[in-house]
Specification:
alpha/beta; Rossmann fold; 11-stranded mixed sheet; two-stranded antiparallel ribbon; 12 helices
Length: 431
């Protein structure tokens, strides 16, 4: 297995350049690049490597149905999607756009009622099926992506018993949709958090806006040299950082009782507690969570799900509480930005390594891909989600992320970070 396949961002990067062009560049990078630039390069390329059965035809009459694990907190979950428009700045990725347009979802403890929200909106699911699933080795039409439901009720009223809701902002890996973190996001919402997931338009492979309007990602540059890849990631990181700060502005408005976007669920105005804010992200989203925590005094703590660091935070670290979850082979020795970030960070910090986990283990691919591979054995399961038991991996991630935010946003004591826990033998603390 190549270094690219093992360590790269599982963001969906199969753009208009096509899998063959991207995979050739990936091979060139894996063979010729070392050090920091190589670490950045592998973030962006892996899922564009063509799988042997990616072009195979599936039986459209019998697609595979997959499901997400139920959240474990005491509250039912509600969700609402909304469009936000930041007219204070032009779009950072498309110069002709005079404003920045985003899709977000709010996830929160709810009273129940209403239809279950889909995992992906219909056009986004169709785009995933056509463009994002085949590079993972899942043929087009093999899975009924649009049929998968979350456990959240659309527009359900906010549960008043939950009180003021600590806020967590979530960002996916580079090119990935906001839906790819639903397994963790729903669980946090069921524990009494308001979680805000963000799609970064023109970077995420597909973003569905109201009115059945689908916006695809910009094509990758035709020649993916290390320098081009590093610039691409830096551009995306800067755009994401501005997006997250704008979204946090909107959450602050909600906390003050001012409406945003479209229709809000009953009880949402005034429900967020903007004095208790965390950031959570996978891969590039984890790097941006760190940068946001360093730059924005409103953010109190953050979690990085196996992401390398891009931008100033790689060398400057953070001063606030920080949790880093790592795949088995991702270490400070193999990733220069991890070593420099860790040395520079001066606040409460923990790094936990998950034995048998891969980069995609920290996304919804962890529960979904094994269900698919059980019926499509040629899916390269270990490449994307490793060999860790999917249920145990999900349970451990939920426990540690939930305990971290409970500790640092709610002041709830925990012994989980003090040493090994018999419930999670796959997880080890790295000094």
């Amino acid at each position: 297995m190549s270094v690219v396949t093992k360590n790269a961002d599982l963001a969906m990067r199969a753009r208009a350049t096509g899998p063959s062009a991207v995979s050739k560049a990936a091979g060139d990078v894996a063979g010729k690049v070392t050090g920091k630039v190589a670490a950045l390069a592998v973030l962006v390329l892996a899922v564009s490597l063509p799988a042997s059965n990616a072009s195979a035809s599936a039986d459209a009459a019998r697609p595979i149905w997959v499901s997400l694990p139920a959240p474990g907190g005491p509250y039912p979950v509600g969700t609402v999607a909304m469009r936000l428009v930041d007219r204070s700045r032009p779009d950072p990725l498309v110069a002709a756009m005079p404003y920045r347009e985003l899709m977000i979802s709010l996830w929160y403890p709810a009273t129940g009622g209403g239809p279950l929200a889909p995992h992906m909106a219909p056009l986004a699911a169709a785009g995933w099926n056509r463009h994002s699933a085949p590079p993972l080795g899942v043929p087009k039409g093999a899975v009924a992506w649009a049929a998968t439901r979350t456990h959240a009720r659309v527009g359900a009223p906010v549960e008043p018993r939950a009180g003021r809701l600590p806020v967590v902002l979530f960002g996916s890996g580079d090119g990935g949709p906001r839906t790819l973190g639903t397994t963790l996001v729903e669980d946090l919402a069921s524990r009494g958090y308001l979680v805000v997931t963000v799609d970064h338009t023109y970077e995420a492979d597909q973003v569905e806006f109201p009115g059945r309007r689908l916006v695809r990602a910009l094509p990758l540059p035709p020649k993916l040299t290390p320098k081009v890849i590093a610039k691409l990631l830096a551009d995306h990181a800067r755009a994401r950082l501005a997006d997250m700060r704008y979204v946090l502005d909107q959450v602050t408005a909600l906390a003050q009782g001012r409406p945003i976007g479209g229709a809000l669920p009953e009880g949402m105005l005034g429900a967020p507690d903007a004095t208790r804010v965390g950031a959570l992200g996978q891969s590039l989203g984890g790097s941006v969570a760190a940068q946001l925590t360093r730059d924005d005094p409103r953010v109190d703590a953050a979690v990085n799900l196996d992401g390398s660091y891009v931008g100033p935070v790689a060398g400057r670290g953070v001063t606030r509480p920080f949790l880093q979850l790592a795949a088995e082979t991702h270490t400070r020795d193999s990733e220069p930005s991890w070593k420099s970030f860790w040395r520079a960070s001066t606040g409460w910090k923990r790094e936990l390594r998950f034995k048998g986990a891969a980069h995609g283990s920290f996304t919804d691919l962890q529960p979904l891909l094994p269900q698919i591979a059980a019926k499509l054995p040629k899916v390269p399961l270990a490449d994307y989600v490793g060999t860790i038991d999917p249920g145990r991996s999900t349970a451990a991630q939920r426990a540690y992320v939930g305990a971290f935010f409970d500790l640092h946003l709610r002041g709830k004591p925990t012994r989980l970070f003090e040493g090994p826990d018999a419930r999670f033998p796959e997880v080890s603390r790295i000094p």
